[in-house]
Task: structure prediction
Amino acid sequence: MLLLRGSRSSVVSTEARTLHSSSYHRKVVIARLTDLTHGQFNEVVQQGAAGILIFLPQNFTTIAPDKLKALMELEHALQEDAVPIPVYFAYETDELKDMYNSVQRTSDNGRTTSVAQELWSMLKASGFQLVVSGSQAKMISDVQLSSIQGKLSGFGVEEQLPTGVIVAHYDTFGISPALSFGGDSNGSGVAALLELARLLSRLYTNSRTHPHISVCILFLFRFTPLLFFSSSPEGSLLADSLFTMCIDSIGSGDDLYVHVSKPPREGSAAANLFNELQRAATRLAPEMRVSMVHKKINLADESLAWEHERFSMRRLPAFTVSHLPSHRAPSRSSIFDTANSLEKDKLARNVKVLAEALARILYNVTDNESSLQVFRSSLEDYLGAWVDLLSSQPRGAQLMAKGKAPLVSMLEQALSRHLKEVRLSTFQPDKRCLPRSCLLLLCCQCPPLGGRALSCTNSELVKRLSRPPHLAPVCCAPTFKVSEQPGA
Result:
């Protein structure tokens, strides 16, 4: 049975009202997210509104931390709802602010105003007709998920060498796919993986420092690891790995957490790597604490908590490194997670700790030699450039499930600079293995309008969605028009 969440409709053609109107029936309600509550949202839906247009702040950095946390919690509450009407989002530009104020004046008497009085106010004032044309959203029939694999081969007979795996997913999630930039989750993970590839490649290209362990680097579309466990070369490579380290959200925070489904066996490569992470943190960042968080896999959940759980289900030694202590952190799937959400100095610190710990495992240096430091150069500039680039474009899963997206090509080229064996793989999920959660998607942009109509070229209005998708649906692009109607 498929559980559908999110909006089930997309077409709109009616007048605009604000939350202060006495009736929402067959009207599009416009509201600022900072003014909206979950109860008000449900009331708008129950009163039979034709749609909702929610304005987002232009600059999230001006929002107080407590208010930002409340907005993230509201965002996640809305993600859980099944909504029968269209819901759109837009950044509040000056033009949209003028429109909102004009509509607000029509309803400035509040809910105490009678219907007759509100009708008279509507006739005297200017109104706005909101129109979204096009076909209704529908599920994608041909989903293609891309992953990138690169390998640093160790010194020796390749087939006989042990392998370590480092993974990061490159897609993001939020209530609106085209507004999901994922600065910390998982822009920081992608940037960290690229930097680790660059640093480790220096060791593997020098005959004097060539380790005897191979390293496999994977950029994955979230929830695709199960596709690797087949007769493919990638499947056999992962099945024989010493450890699988997933990197997710390491661009902020004072501590690092190693999330595991089962604590690693003492003396194993995964356990040694955890110990080396603690030692590296003690040497390079004494104020930082590295601790292990044990959480069993709950197969009853609609989606798994962390990326490593996909590997752990196959009895592989895997863990996720993150600055988040819990998978329930709202910032992991929020449109408020932008480039400003992370601290580049802490990202560089965390990557250096990871690199030093990996180097000690590669060279089998497992004692307390505090004088050993393999990487001494500054990493902040390189990491900052990648984070800025990744955070400048949305990476919503629904927008990238149609094969080789431009971002995927960019990551493939970047990885090829440091690794010789780079392969791009495209997968099509088996329809017999569909998850219980699936989503509907609709992307729409507001084009420039002439005459007295409002120009909304800086705002991108996108259909809101629900939980992180295992299967991405179709993206269509209708026209969104905001036209001003003179009063009688």
Notes: Residues 344-362 form the longest helix (19 residues).
